[in-house]
Automatic annotation (TrEMBL), chain A:
UniProt keyword terms in alphabetical order: 4Fe-4S, Electron transport, Iron, Iron-sulfur, Metal-binding, Transport
Pfam short name (any one): Fer4_10
Organism: Nitrospirillum amazonense
GO molecular-function term, one example from the UniProt record: 4 iron, 4 sulfur cluster binding
InterPro entries (alphabetical): 4Fe4S_Fe-S-bd, 4Fe4S_Fe_S_CS
Cofactor: [4Fe-4S] cluster
Ranges for domain 4Fe-4S ferredoxin-type: 1-30
Protein name: 4Fe-4S dicluster protein
Automatic annotation (TrEMBL), chain B:
Lineage: Bacteria, Pseudomonadati, Pseudomonadota, Alphaproteobacteria, Rhodospirillales
Membership in a protein family: Belongs to the radical SAM superfamily. NifB family.
PROSITE patterns in alphabetical order: MOAA_NIFB_PQQE, RADICAL_SAM
Domain Radical SAM core: 69-318
Pathway: Cofactor biosynthesis; Fe-Mo cofactor biosynthesis
Annotated CDD domains: NifB, Radical_SAM
Requisite cofactors: [4Fe-4S] cluster
Protein name in UniProt: FeMo cofactor biosynthesis protein NifB
InterPro entries noted in UniProt: Aldolase_TIM, Di-Nase_FeMo-co_biosynth, DiNase_FeMo-co_biosyn_sf, MoaA_NifB_PqqE_Fe-S-bd_CS, Nase_CF_NifB, NifB_C, rSAM, rSAM_sf
Organism annotation: Nitrospirillum amazonense
Record key words, sorted: 4Fe-4S, Iron, Iron-sulfur, Lyase, Metal-binding, Nitrogen fixation, S-adenosyl-L-methionine
Domain of life: Bacteria
Length: 74, 519
């Protein structure tokens, strides 16, 4: 799985963009989106997903269940 | 800049730039000799007993000098959208052009757009002397964008003072960079020094890749704020501390905050009323947390004043505000408009204009001193407040019905002292006076004995008198302080002669709603 941003709640503050260790977040159409191919749920980097921790609107960066759970290499 | 060749009438009166500069040089320190009792309050009248190097830093900074804010303008560029803490009085989603709160902007800019905007504004408004980055998030949570903006502006407009306003969480990490970019003024918002109090204001902070909550979050924040403040003052960078007064949460505690920041070298303390309304969608707005009344705010500011200089002219402006404090010209400088504007950065023209402003200031202070001298023998315990309608330059030059705010002065035999301002809705729009709006104005200045205006219509005049507030229009287009002292002298005379009985006024309301931008 990967994280996704619920666009209708995104304030477009860009805080998540700088914190993502995978550079998976970018601006698109006025709000920010996570590239699911790059998202590792921060596994291997941090204890908590950074986009979730820094986002000013609760429940805006959420797990996207349409993707399989990320498997850390090795 | 056409104004620089003023229509002074006879050609002989045309002032050359050199002559103006010479006069300014002679008036170094602004020629203002202290002022009323509190001469140490260098942020108010003139240089007072401020060291020259500090006076040079604040004398044309509207946010650091009460006196300067009548004459000089500032602008904020909204290049810093990200934030690293959550405050219960802030809701970043709310974004409306008519809303004036620090966390709110209409348009975010890249550093390049911001630099362009600064040039466009500085070319149009020669008294614009200060560029601040205040958000809409936290400048130091966006360090790359913030410092890139400073770099670009210091290259193209070297005479503009740079400042930034931060919550302080990331401050210790950036102090050296701040010093390197010659950022002269840093404002830190410090609402508490006790983490138990902080836990009621901050739900969380994000630091070192982790979200902290509760008392732990507040402890981390206060430690880093105070350390950052110490590091800045050690390097000789001027620091202002902003505090939001939240009745029942941190109101009395702010006296302790005042002591803590003073002992760490803060130059100025700005206690601001909480802005809180349900429609803002903030936690405090939704829980019904009220803001202070005008009297509560003034009492707290007065309590802290013995300790250090207090700022009372803050307008809690938006992170993209442009113009004199109390006016907002940001709508004239949208990205679309600045891209079309012809930008001609005329450093000499700006300096000549500002030299004339300095002359105005000297004249204003001289007039006040002269009037004050006539009050020298007077003995009275009477202290009262008056409201003033002004468009700037220290003059009573605004029509009652057009005033978007009133400035409030406290009068006593010690003189006239600026103690605050009251925002009001436009009472008169397109010539129609509206009864409800008049009531709003009366509520906002209900603690004042008189209101000084350039002009006022018959109906509001009668209503003001009915409410016990004397409308005064005889000093139209004259200096505020000189006129207020002259009026006060007359007032004392009438009381002494038994013509009127002095009685105290009630409290006044601080307006919480949106600032309506004049069409």
């Amino acid at each position: 799985m990967a994280y996704k941003i619920i666009a209708s709640q995104c304030t477009s503050c860009s805080a998540c963009e700088a914190e993502c260790p995978n550079v998976a977040i970018s601006e698109k159409g006025g709000t920010f989106v996570i590239n699911p191919k790059k998202c590792t749920e921060c596994i291997g980097y941090f204890d908590v997903p950074q986009c979730v921790a820094v986002c000013p609107v609760d429940n805006t960066c959420v797990i996207d269940t349409t993707y399989p759970r990320y498997q850390a290499a090795g | 800049m056409h104004a620089s060749t003023t229509q002074d009438g006879a050609a002989g009166r045309l002032v050359t730039i050199d002559a103006v500069m010479q006069q300014v040089a002679e008036h170094k320190g602004c020629g203002t000799q202290g002022g009323s009792g509190k001469a140490s309050c260098g942020s108010a009248a003139g240089q007072g007993d401020l060291p020259t190097e500090i006076w040079e830093k604040v004398k044309n900074h509207p946010c650091y000098s009460e006196e300067a804010h009548h004459h000089y303008a500032r602008m904020h560029v909204a290049v810093a959208p990200a934030c690293n803490i959550q405050c219960n009085y802030c809701n970043r989603k709310y974004d409306c052009a008519n809303e004036s709160r620090p966390g709110v902007v209409s348009e975010r800019l890249t550093p390049e757009q911001a630099a362009r905007k600064v040039l466009a504004v500085a070319s149009t408004i020669p008294q614009m002397t200060v560029l601040g980055i205040a958000g809409p998030g936290d400048p130091l949570a966006n360090p790359a964008k913030t410092f890139k903006t400073f770099e670009l502006i210091s290259q193209t407009a070297p005479d503009i003072k740079l400042c930034l306003s931060t919550n302080g969480l990331a401050l210790p990490d950036h102090v050296d960079t701040i010093a390197r970019y010659n950022v002269d003024h840093v404002t830190i918002t410090i609402n508490m020094v006790d983490p138990e109090v902080g836990a009621k204001i901050y739900p969380w902070v994000y630091w070192n890749h982790k979200r902290y909550t509760g008392v732990e979050a507040a402890r981390l924040l206060t430690e880093r704020q105070l350390r950052g403040l110490e590091m800045l003052t050690e390097r000789g960078i001027l620091c202002k501390v902003n505090s939001v007064m939240i009745p029942g949460v941190n109101d009395r505690h702010l006296v302790e905050v005042n002591r803590a920041v003073k002992s760490r070298g803060a130059f100025l303390h700005n206690i601001m009323p909480l802005i809180s309304a349900p429609e803002h969608g903030t936690v405090f707005g939704l829980t019904g947390q009220r803001g202070p009344t005008a009297q509560e705010l003034k009492a707290l500011q007065d309590d802290c004043e013995g300790e250090m200089n207090m700022m009372r002219h803050c307008r809690q402006c938006r992170a993209d505000a442009v113009g004199l404090l109390g006016e907002d010209r940001s709508a004239e400088f949208t990205t679309e408009k600045i891209m079309e504007m012809e930008v001609d950065y005329d450093l000499e023209g700006r300096q000549a204009y500002q030299a004339r402003v300095e002359e105005e200031r000297v004249a204003k202070v001289a007039a006040k001193q002269e009037e004050l001298a006539t009050l020298a023998g007077a003995r009275s315990d009477i202290t009262l407040l008056v409201a003033v309608a002004t468009k700037g330059s220290g003059l009573i030059n605004e029509h009652f019905g057009h005033a978007k705010e009133f400035q409030v002065y406290e009068l006593s035999t010690a003189g006239a002292k600026f103690v605050g301002h009251r925002r009001v809705d436009l009472y008169c729009q397109g010539g129609f006076g509206d009864e409800d709006s008049l009531q709003t104005v009366i509520r906002a200045i209900n603690d004042c004995h008189a209101v000084f205006v350039a002009k006022i219509g018959g109906c509001p005049k009668a209503d003001l008198l009915g409410a016990g507030i004397e409308p005064v229009d005889q000093y139209a287009h004259e200096f505020i302080e000189k006129s207020a002292i002259a009026w006060f002298k007359g007032y004392l005379g009438k009381v002494a002669a038994g013509e009127l009985v002095h009685s105290p006024r009630g409290d006044a309301a601080i307006r919480q709603g949106a600032l309506i931008v004049a069409a």
